[in-house]
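Human:
Take a look at this sequence-structure pair and walk me through the tokens.
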Amino acid sequence: MTALLDAICTQHLHVGDAGCGHAAALASDYLHAAHLITTAEAVAMAYRAGVTPQACIDAINLGAGRSAVSEVNFPRWVLPGRYDSGISTGQLRRDLRLARSFVTTLNLPEGLMKAVFERCQPPELCPADEDDLHHLCDRWLSRVPAQLRPPRLTETRAPGS
């Protein structure tokens, strides 16, 4: 399979027997959602203490709390209010449902998984399935002034903005 995978993709990783790649992808998607939520909460907390969102992200990225979300997603999509990552909230919700089901099937405690799952679900202030997944951060960043935050869910957004 390695030769075929080399021909059709730039990166691949063998993680185990059949089904293991699916489990690893679900683990990654769960962490992606958790990092979006925790980073938005951290930025909102620091903002309330007088730290600008960009300064907070810069500080996080110098410390042990950094992640791909703080290093890539926040600077590229969340802080500038660009919602064109190509990943929808619906896709993330689907993956979280699968991950939660997997945890249940394996008889593992849900722990933080349950909280992450619930914070990504309607009816609370939550983006629609077709919205870019970075709108999940809006709930926590809604008190940041307009010039320092992305548009709120209740504002009209131009396509591709």
Notes: The CA atoms of residues 6 and 137 lie 36 Å apart. Residues 150-161 have pLDDT under 50 and may be disordered. The helical segments are 2-8, 20-48, 53-62, 68-78, 89-105, 112-119, 138-141. The chain is about 55% helix and 0% strand.
